[in-house]
């Protein structure tokens, strides 16, 4: 094999890409990333390899908490079906843990708010639907093909649907922070923020109350819980675990 030649910018791109793969919440990528790194180490000139390693070590990509883990093979299967415009059969479990089997026409994949979403036309529902990848349990490609709608913007569709997605819990809290001082990076996409009494009211649709409570704590502001009452118990559970860890340390 001829030696691979990378300039500084190309080496940065490769190092950054491999580093980012570790943070995307995709299972089974770690062995693949390690395999690529091992092959690159064998074929790259020593100075370029050392430069890539240096770049990788100084990069600090903050891992997003609570991201659902996704099977890398599943993403490959769906990407192939989207590219070839092939229908697929899926086994899907919705937010209420109800399982169903669907035949869909996949349009595109989007990663938003730490979750992976598939936009597809569902033949059972006779409409375009949004599927969370971590809830797809099985995929089988079909021989039937379809024609993707012209002008279909999958990202715009995902963004328009996120606030309307059903969830196990609808929460409402008052947060003692202004629009200007609030850390919006911590707030999920499925949220509404309105000003009220020198603070904001935050309304969210969530599936996990303890994760939501942890996010609210991370805001570092005074909080008043309006609904549901179960959110109080979620804070208590976090506090109990934190106390146990503090005592054990």
Structural write-up:
- The chain is of the alpha+beta class.
- The protein folds into three domains: 8-58, no CATH class; 70-161, SH3 type barrels, CATH 2.30.30.100; 169-248, Alpha-Beta Plaits (2-Layer Sandwich).
- The chain has seven helices and eleven strands.
- The protein has helices at residues 8-21, 29-43, 46-58, 72-84, 154-162, 209-218, 230-248; strands spanning 26-27, 70-71, 86-93, 99-112, 115-122, 127-132, 136-145, 169-175, 191-196, 199-206, 223-227.
- The strands form three sheets. Strands 6-5-4-3-7 form a five-stranded antiparallel beta sheet. Strands 9-10-8-11 form a four-stranded antiparallel beta sheet, with helices on one face.
- A hairpin with a 5-residue loop joins β3 (86-93) and β4 (99-112).
- The mean pLDDT is 82.
Lay out the secondary structure.
Blueprint: H1 8-21, E1 26-27, H2 29-43, H3 46-58, E2 70-71, H4 72-84, E3 86-93, E4 99-112, E5 115-122, E6 127-132, E7 136-145, H5 154-162, E8 169-175, E9 191-196, E10 199-206, H6 209-218, E11 223-227, H7 230-248
Parallel strand pairs: 1-2
Antiparallel strand pairs: 3-4, 3-7, 4-5, 5-6, 8-10, 8-11, 9-10
Helix pairs in contact: 1-3, 6-7
What are the key terms here?
249 residues; SH3 type barrels; Alpha-Beta Plaits; 5-stranded antiparallel beta sheet; 11 strands
Low-confidence stretches: none
Distance between the termini: 53 Å
- Beta content comes to 25-35%
State the major sheet. Answer: 5 strands, antiparallel
| CATH topology label of the largest domain | SH3 type barrels
| Rg, nearest Å | 22 Å
Number of helices: 7
The helix/strand class is alpha+beta
What CATH first level of the largest domain would be assigned?
Mainly Beta
Helix percent band: 25-40%
Mean pLDDT: 82
Task: Based on Cα principal axes, name the global outline.
Answer: globular
CATH architecture of the largest domain: Roll
How many separate domains make up the residues? 3
Side-by-side strand order of the widest sheet: 6-5-4-3-7
């Amino acid at each position: 094999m001829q030696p691979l030649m990378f300039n500084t910018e190309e080496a940065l791109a490769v190092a950054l890409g491999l580093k980012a793969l570790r943070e995307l919440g995709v299972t089974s990528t770690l062995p693949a990333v390690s395999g690529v790194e091992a092959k690159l180490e064998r074929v790259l000139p020593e100075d370029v390899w050392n430069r890539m390693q240096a770049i990788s070590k100084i990069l600090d990509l903050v891992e997003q908490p609570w991201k659902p883990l996704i099977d890398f093979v599943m993403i490959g299967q769906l990407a192939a079906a989207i590219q070839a415009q092939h229908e697929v059969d899926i086994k899907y479990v919705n937010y209420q843990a109800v399982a169903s089997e669907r035949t869909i026409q996949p349009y595109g994949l989007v990663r938003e708010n730490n979750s992976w979403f598939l936009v597809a036309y569902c033949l059972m529902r006779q409409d375009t639907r949004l599927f969370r990848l971590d809830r797809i349990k099985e995929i089988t490609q079909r021989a039937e093909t379809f024609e993707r709608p012209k002008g279909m913007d999958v990202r715009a569709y995902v963004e328009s649907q996120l606030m309307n997605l059903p969830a196990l819990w609808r929460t409402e809290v008052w947060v003692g922070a202004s629009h200007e001082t609030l850390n919006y990076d911590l707030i999920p996409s499925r949220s509404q923020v309105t000003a009220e009494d020198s603070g904001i009211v935050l309304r969210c649709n969530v599936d996990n109350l303890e994760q939501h409570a942890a996010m609210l704590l991370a805001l570092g502001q005074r909080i008043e819980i309006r609904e549901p009452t179960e959110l109080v118990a979620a804070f208590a559970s976090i506090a109990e675990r934190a106390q146990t860890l503090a005592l054990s340390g």
